[in-house]
């Protein structure tokens, strides 16, 4: 069960995603079906919610953020499809349903992921409701490309795969997590900051600080849930990290210290929101939800 305030953001981004994703009766139908299957599956929509909530903290009309919110969720959905493939995590279950390659086939899943990434950038280039200034749009495209490229999410994934079965230390693990998961969370917030014509440099810095801390806390919490969550609630197979000998925070420092570290990072994220006073209430609720979630 997600809280009502999160559902508001979720419904908003789902409606926008539904408009952008090609319908199944448009050729190539099977590819479009796979794209819609993966994206519109019941995920939490954390990254769009961060984008909208950061926008709320800056007083930005939410329609201006529909494009960035869709773009980050499409990148996320593509990364999950590819991560689940036999060449990577080889998972059967995602968001409580068969993974994309199980439901369709491997080639379709790879291509669906590829097409979702392309659609994300197309939206940032074309969406008529976004900030109009071409230089700002270009900056947003650049930020998203950097966040999901070889020095961001894809790079983090590559290092994560290379570290399987190896012993790595905490700073190496942090380096991987900041890229694999943190980069997309960070850019979800920064795309909102870019969409504001009035945000001060100090406000941007505070949002950046919040995003960095909550991004790492989110991944540590994900590691913790992989140890003590429930497969049905998680909607994905629990215990996969251990099965694949992945480096995780609970593995490296123990379950309780990992939990404490996540809470410490969460507190730092909340402290960064202090200057926004009541305007950051949605962001605070979201940070709290991310720390106390069960899925
Ligand atoms: C394959 C390019 C590429 C990147 C993969 C996303 C990712 C990087 C790996 C997924 C593996 C994983 C479980 C990472 C931990 C953090 C994470 C991204 C969890 C899933 O995100 P949620 O909890 O999922 O927001 P929902 O389904 O709610 O959207």
List the helices and strands and how they pair.
Layout: H1 4-20, H2 29-39, H3 46-57, H4 66-84, E1 93-94, E2 97-98, H5 100-103, H6 106-126, H7 134-148, H8 153-162, H9 170-194, H10 201-228, H11 231-234, H12 240-243, H13 249-253, H14 255-272, H15 281-292
Antiparallel strand pairs: 1-2
Helix pairs in contact: 1-3, 1-4, 2-6, 3-4, 3-9, 3-15, 4-6, 4-9, 7-9, 8-9, 9-10, 10-14, 14-15
Summarize the structure.
With 295 residues, the protein is an all-alpha fold. It has helices spanning 4-20, 29-39, 46-57, 66-84, 100-103, 106-126, 134-148, 153-162, 170-194, 201-228, 231-234, 240-243, 249-253, 255-272, 281-292; strands spanning 93-94, 97-98. It starts with a helix and ends with a helix.
Task: Give an overview in words.
This protein is mostly helical and 295 residues long. The protein has one domain: Farnesyl Diphosphate Synthase (Orthogonal Bundle). 69% of the residues lie in helices and 1% in strands. The protein is built from 15 helices and 2 strands. The chain has helices at 4-20, 29-39, 46-57, 66-84, 100-103, 106-126, 134-148, 153-162, 170-194, 201-228, 231-234, 240-243, 249-253, 255-272, 281-292, and strands at 93-94, 97-98. Helix 3 (46-57) runs antiparallel to helix 15 (281-292). The chain is globular and about 50 Å long. The mean pLDDT is 94. Geranylgeranyl diphosphate (GRG) binds at residues 43-44, 46, 76, 79-80, 82-83, 88, 95, 153-154, 157, 180-181, 219, 222. Geranylgeranyl diphosphate binds next to helix 4, helix 8, helix 9 and helix 10.
